[in-house]
Structures are given as C-alpha cells and as structure tokens.
Amino acid sequence: MKTNRNIKQVIVNGETSLGIEFGSTRIKAVLIDHYFETIASGSYEWENLLEDGFWTYNLVDIITGLQAAYREMKQEVERNYGITIRTVGSIGFSAMMHGYMAFDNTGELLVPFRTWRNATTSVAARELTDQFQFNIPERWSIAHLYQAILNEEKHLPRIDFITTLAGYIHWLLTGQKAIGIGDASGMFPIDESLQDYNESMVKQFDELIALKGYPWKLKDILPKVYVSGEQAGELTEIGAKILDQSQNLQPGIPLCPPEGDAGTGMVATNSVRKCTGNVSVGTSVFAMIVLENELSKVYPEIDLVTTPNGSPVGMVHANNCSSDLNAWLGLFREFSEAMGQKVETDKLFNVMLNKALEADPDGGGLLGYGYFSGENITGLEEGRPLFVRSPESHFNLANFMRTHLFTAFGALKIGMDILIKQEKVTIDSILAHGGLFKTPVVGQKIVAAAMNAPVSVMATAGEGGAWGMAILASYMLDKDHYRLEDFLDKKVFKEVDRQEIYPDQFDVKGFEAFIERYKKGLVIEQAAVDHFSGKLEEFTC
C-alpha cells in the first residue's frame, strides 16, 4: 500500500516522470510515479489569437503557460507532501501537431507561430500532394513552408530552423533540435524503414524550389527525428531556470523526444500496436488506425502519420461530431424545465441516449446532418445542421436519437470505409474516449457498428495527453528494453479495467443502410448551404 511517506521518497529520489502538453485551450503538466499513477498536476488556460490573418499563440503566452502549469503542479506537491521538487526522473513535452515555427540563426522567431488551425495553405497542399503522390494536409509544416515560398515571403532566406510547438519547447530547454517521429510525421512524410524523413521526397522538394536560390536545403532546417525510448537531450541550466522560476529544479534531467498530441493520445489509450486504433469524440471526431501495410493509393480523406515508435497510422478526421446532438439535448432540457422538471445533465444524457437502443436498426428512415461547419470528407465547405424525414419514416424518439448518433459518426464512417472496405485494413480493437462514452454501452455500440470492430473504453481514457507524454518519458528509462507496445501492455495497462463491446450485426447492417441514405442526401445538405444563410435579420415593426 502506497502512503504519503512512500510517495515523498519517490519524489525525493526522482523516481518520477513529468509530461507537459500544450493543447489548443489548455497547457497541462502531469507528474507520475514509477507505477504510472498521477502524483500531481497543474494547468494553464489559453486561447489562440487571429493576427494578420493567421491563428497563432504568442511566445509570451507559450512561456508563461509553461511556467504556470509547472508551478501549479509543483505547489500541489508541496501542499500534499511537504517537499520541494528538485529533480525528476525524466521529462517530455508534447503539443498540438503540425503548424509552422521558423527561426533564424540567432534563435529569433521570423513570423508568428502558425498553428494547425490555419486554412491558408490549400494551394501548397494540393501541389505537394501531386508532386509527392502522398497526401499532404493543409495543416502540415511542409505545406506552410511551401505556401510561404509561393507567396514569396521575405523571411524565407533567413530560415535556419523550422519546427513544431513541442519541438520549440524542447529546443528552448535542452538546446537540441529534436523531434519525436510521431510529431515529425506531421511536418513531412516519414519513411518507416528508415525511421526518418522520406529521402526521395526531400530531394523532390529541394529540386522543386531550387530556382529560388535559398541558402538552405530542407533536411538542414528540419529537426532531427527520434523514436520513443531514445534520449533526445538533457535539461540545461538555462532550461531549468525557464521551467522552474523558483530555480529549485536542477539541470541534467534526461528528456525524451517531444511528441504531438496524436501520439500522446495513442499512448494514453494503449493504441500503438499494429491493427489497433483509437477514436476520440468531441466537437470533432477522429480515428487513428495503426496499419500493417502501406495504402495502395493516395486518399485525401486519409492522413498518414506515425505512432511514437514509428509505425504508420491512417488518420480519419471529421470536423463535426457531437455539437448538434448536444444542441438537441439542450432543447429537450428546455422542454423538461418548461414542464417543471429540472433534470441533471448526466441523467438527461443517460435517458436520451439509451432510447437509441430501442430504435429500428437503421433509425427508421430518418436522416440528419450535424454540420455546424464544413466537412472535408464529404466535400462541404460550409455546414447547416439539418434533420429530414419522409411521410413513410418511422418517427419516434428512439429513432430520432439513433439517427443523431449515427450522423455524429457519418463522415467518420465514410473515411473509415475507405480503410476497411477498399484497403482491407485489419482492425483487431478500437479504444474510444470522449464525453459521449460516460453513458455506458450506447456510444460503444454505435462506434462498433460504424467500424464493424470491437470497441473498448478504459478507466484511464480520461487521463489525457499530458499523462501519455509522462508515460513516454517514463518509457525512456525502461530497464527491460520492451518495445513500446509491450511496455504499455505489460506494465502501464496490465491491471487497467477495460470494457469491450463487439459489433452487433443488426446494428452493423442498420448503419450500412443509414450511411447509404446519408450519402444520397448530401445534395440536400448542399442545397441548405446554398440557399439558407441562417443569419439573423434585424426586424422592425
């Protein structure tokens, strides 16, 4: 049995690992022990800014947030255990993937950090996809760099180094221009056999821009690629002072490779083994499947990235998921309150979502689109939440709820069908995480039907990316030299509860019928976009 005394000794001895992740709305620091359990955490809320047409976070906020998250974690240790952190066994940083940070040889940031959210690189992304015959999404670092070249931006001749946000923090605190292979795979295509950037594509890019006469080659300005388990530097004296403003933290602490949030999500859900995957559900939804083989051709619906240990991953990302479902449940809440019945949020979700289990397998002929925004997978540049039925539809509450659950995963299913039906990708198991799965069974059954694969929810799925990053930092110290997937199975998740649901073939066939209706009805959604702005008009009598 662990006691405060045991944990104090663990902290004093440095038998700990620290993960800090820079998310889109929160920076979080998590300190774990050698049993991979959280000792303390700290966080800092922040928001991106739109400056000169680009979504960004400024450097002051980046450093302020890093220090605030660490300080809050440190203070929690002091409150609970009465000791000051002076060392940590290992540290790792992760952040939102992709984006563009360019520096000159003095370390000056040449243009404000351009985040993954910017949709300013469509021309570059298309041209590079054609050039490489490899899907280059708009948010990738190479798309940002090439778009800047197409725009003939003035900073380009001065570039000495480009990196991601996680790569920048790691460089700042260690002096090492390093990046984890998962994060690197959102900068430039990776060659799995080399565990490095694709050499032929690097050469193609250099040839493509040769006439520009820049004083650099692409490989010279990219960070060095590391895989999980490798050490990618040590905390310097300057780095220790930046991280811990109280200057109690000592330098020399080993750092693992910095990673992207997709990679830490895979680690936090034990989804790095080939033929496994995870589904993350929220305002948007994405699925990441670890592939056994390369895809046969380029698909704009599928991003190809890697796990932190370099295995290829097919990623399907849909912009819309739970927003419309939440809006309808808000309407039902208003109704219940108008009837004098105040309903707790958890009970509302439990009752309403469970109604979907009583529905016809295909949702009774109903149709909906929860498109609050455009949807890249289905080719819609804008969205209009929409619900449609015919006089023959079986319209009741159960079918209504099932339809809204189906449509929440409709675009995702279209992308996943490319992997499953066209590419014959094997999926042994899917780990699902997100607020929808707080209601037992229902969400799992719907996702299992969409994927036609077993879907699990684990007790640790809510721990988040900072915890996943701390796990990667801990893995670097592993004395047994396990492969990452074995380390997670045999050590981290060995005793974690896991609730697995297999696909019900009635649900699978019902979802297939619904998705055909969904695809045919996309012209209705497009018509709504074309003919209904939804803007509020000022009305005067």
From TrEMBL:
It holds the Pfam family FGGY_C. Keywords: Kinase, Transferase. It comes from the Bacteria. SUPFAM superfamilies: Actin-like ATPase domain. Residues 278-476 form the Carbohydrate kinase FGGY C-terminal domain. One of its GO terms (molecular function) is kinase activity. This is FGGY-family carbohydrate kinase.
